[in-house]
Amino acid sequence: DIQLTQSPSFLSASVGDRVTITCRASQGISSYLAWYQQKPGKAPKLLIYAASTLQSGVPSRFSGSGSGTEFTLTISSLQPEDFATYYCQQLNSYLSITFGQGTRLEIK
Amino acid sequence: EVQLVQSGAEVKKPGESLKISCKGSGYSFTSYWIGWVRQMPGKGLEWMGIIYPGDSDTRYSPSFQGQVTISADKSISTAYLQWSSLKASDTAMYYCARPDGNDYGDLYFQHWGQGTLVTVSS
After folding, report:
1. With an 8 Å Cβ cutoff, is A5 touching chain B?
2. Neighbours of A97 (CB within 10 A)
3. What is the pLDDT of residues A41-94, one digit of tens each?
4. Contact (CB<8Å) B59/A99
5. Which residues of chain B make contact with A32, given a CB cutoff of 8 A?
6. Residue A47: how many CB atoms within 10 A of its CB?
């Protein structure tokens, strides 16, 4: 199984900050990576797919990059509604899907 | 509008069986994969498995193979997740989710159900 490791696991930041979350895959996954946002008591929401494609309706302050084994999610200027937990997800050609362990983003 | 509506919360005892559901609407149910995701209390997301209702092709995460059964009934546009003998460790929120794509490399979950909370306690 391909493992995904997110860093950091916890991040404290202020409104207006630029933040970056990293997701590392245990083996190369090309660009088959997505990022989700989850708020307490809610289902996850897809933000980015195919490593860098912004899902329709998601604000442009969110961006994704990377390929192979290292990927990043960047929020260019944190807004109050962005404080949540973020997960990366990979998929491969054998329909094996895994999620990272999550990064909790809290207000400083 | 694509909608996935899941069945309501369940409280069960260890050893009991359970089948929860996810009803799709607003799209051709047989044309898209539906996946299941577990979230234990205070923990992260875990992919359990996925089914293609058109031909019932089903894949499981190795962690859940043999522990649960995923199925679908095309006639009523509903996918299911079932257990034959629940354990306390099955206590979790369970989500169904549907991607917009159909290719293996396009299975990102754009649409999610509201979740079904399963509590297993003696």
Report:
1. no
2. 25
3. 999 999 999 999 999 999 999 999 999 999 999 999 999 999 999 999 998 767
4. no
5. 105
6. 21
